Amino acid sequence: MTMPKQDTDTIRAFQGLEDSRSSVRLRAALAVGTTPDPRFIDKLIERCAIEPEFYVRDMLTWALTRHSASMTVPVLLNEVRSERAQARSQALHTLSKIGDRQAWPAITRALLSDADDEVARSAWRAAVVLVPEGEEPELAAVLSTQLGRGERETQLSLSRALIALGEVILPTLRAAMTDLDPRVREHAIATERLLRDPDAGFEFAIEEAKRVVALGRISQEG
Q: Which Pfam families does the record cross-reference, listed alphabetically (predicted)?
């Protein structure tokens, strides 16, 4: 008895997602996204949690976005509570790409301040996409608790997330400019500079902020 071509293709795709060669995994994820099938959702999410290659993870996310949000979002919401950091990070990243605001309650303060930088960065990006209208100031207040955190890449991610919220972040930034921690003050000043002048560049903004903090001059002008 000959197996139907559809079933053969499904088996081949499942095997491809687990292949030791990243190029094969990439092609398998592309194939699954090109022809969405609900049977693949759990496998795609499972693979996201362990896939070592960035570009393959990106294709896995794309494949998930090609499926119905009503089927993917509930499974992804379970993943954001995973003990595995990559599972949390990828689930949050995928939720930000899907953009279904029903996922908003899952973006908790714990995730926004997750000890793992990649998880926190994914949570920041997801939060600014999913935040309900009118709740931006509260989100800005939570995000501001992370000012001064990490290295340049992490700080830039937070600044971008805050800036995406718009002018509502200004009162929070002004408060952070008086923080006892100079790293927090510098990050807040740099973020405000980027809000006002997006072309300034983060490195320039942060170095300028360091000089301002060192001189003890923080402008309170609106």
A: HEAT_2 (PF13646)
Residue 79 CB: number of other CB atoms within 10 A? Answer: 21
Write out the DSSP string of 102-166. Answer: GGGGG--HHHHT-SSHHHHHHHHHHHHHHPPTT-HHHHHHHHHTTTT-SSHHHHHHHHHHHHHTG
pTM above 0.90, yes or no: no
Say if residue 7's pLDDT is above 90.
Answer: no
Residues whose CB falls within 8 Å of the CB of residue 130, separated by 6 or more in sequence, listed in order: 95, 96, 99, 100, 101, 103, 104, 107
- Give residue-wise pLDDT tens across range 142-177: 999 999 999 999 999 999 999 999 999 999 999 999
Q: What angle do CA 80, 81, 87 make, to 5 degrees?
A: 50
